[in-house]
Structure to design on (340 residues):
């Protein structure tokens, strides 16, 4: 199924089949991806009308939702938003978004009657059963691409997220905030980098290095350790320089990043008892060549007495840009009975 080409069910079909229509969104620190979804419990959600917004170019999440709804051909008053962060009552705790988010204020200001916020990686994990084989690139193992549960989803974007997907149950996803757990070093070089970061922050979490924003912490540290002056001031420029091979330190940055991410991936597989691992997030696509060069897998497998156990857990890089919106629609379908 090509999800990007899927279109919502027609209004007449929706009325006949009890389809629920809503706005679904995947909001990260940099981009918000929105779509219109038609959902029926027990069926694959139908998505269409995709739009992408640069978060920093809009004053609030409410403004983005209101703009999207205003462009629809038919009125929709409900939305499920998969968003990076942790809900604390009405407020979202997140260090990467350009604005604060209140659930109630966002609902009122966007003109929606119903609004639900869920963790972005909970949504990604909910989308795992809908993945097609041609969207999966193997990084470890050559097993059948059918999901093996529990399935761990790990992704680096502006920040770092993870969630565990079970085969079934009333709560099929265990969301986490692993991006804010303490970063663990596994080589002498990583120890040197970590020591430098600890001079800046009393708590150095995983996403201080293993994320898009983290690359811009890792790169200056490596420059200082190598006695070089940093040339790149954005994640995009750094990755471009590494992919072209024009800057050896940019290349080393992505090599260190990929190996370090592999080490964390192996740790999480052990900690969660995962039977498969899916790498999602925009950064994994941008650094795909570095993830595939062997460093990621070497560190993924370097787990002492449990190395052989981890070796049996396949790792897939996911080439799919709409996982978050699909997962938000799946979340809604699982919780909302069809209306007849």
């Amino acid at each position: 199924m090509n999800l990007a080409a899927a279109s919502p069910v027609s209004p007449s079909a929706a009325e006949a089949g009890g389809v629920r229509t809503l706005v679904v969104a995947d909001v990260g620190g940099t981009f918000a991806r929105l779509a219109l979804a038609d959902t029926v419990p027990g069926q694959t959600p139908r998505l269409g009308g995709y739009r992408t917004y640069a978060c920093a170019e809009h004053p609030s999440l409410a403004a983005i939702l209101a703009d999207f709804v205003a462009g629809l051909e038919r009125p929709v008053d409900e939305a499920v938003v998969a968003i990076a962060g942790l809900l604390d009552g009405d407020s979202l705790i997140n260090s990467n978004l350009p604005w604060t988010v209140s659930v109630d204020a966002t609902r009122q200001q966007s003109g929606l009657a119903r609004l639900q916020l869920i963790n972005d990686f909970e949504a990604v994990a909910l989308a795992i059963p809908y993945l097609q084989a041609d969207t999966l690139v193997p990084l470890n193992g050559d097993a059948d691409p059918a999901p093996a549960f529990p399935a761990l989803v790990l992704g680096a974007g502006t920040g770092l997220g993870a969630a565990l997907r079970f085969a079934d149950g009333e709560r099929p996803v265990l969301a986490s905030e692993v991006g804010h757990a303490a970063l663990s070093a596994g080589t002498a070089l990583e120890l040197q980098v970590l020591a430098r970061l600890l001079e800046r922050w009393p708590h150095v979490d995983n996403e201080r290095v293993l994320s898009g924003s983290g690359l811009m912490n890792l790169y200056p540290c490596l420059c200082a350790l190598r006695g070089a002056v940093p040339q790149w001031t954005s994640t995009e420029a750094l990755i471009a320089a590494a992919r072209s091979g024009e800057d050896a330190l940019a290349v080393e940055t992505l090599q260190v990043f990929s190996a370090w991410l592999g080490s964390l991936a192996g740790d999480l597989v052990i900690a969660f008892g995962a039977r498969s691992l899916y790498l999602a997030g925009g950064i994994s696509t941008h650094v795909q060549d570095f993830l595939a060069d062997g460093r990621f897998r070497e560190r993924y497998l370097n787990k002492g007495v449990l190395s052989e156990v981890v070796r049996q857990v396949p790792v897939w890089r996911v080439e799919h840009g709409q996982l978050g919106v699909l997962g938000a629609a799946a979340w809604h379908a699982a919780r909302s009975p069809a209306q007849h």
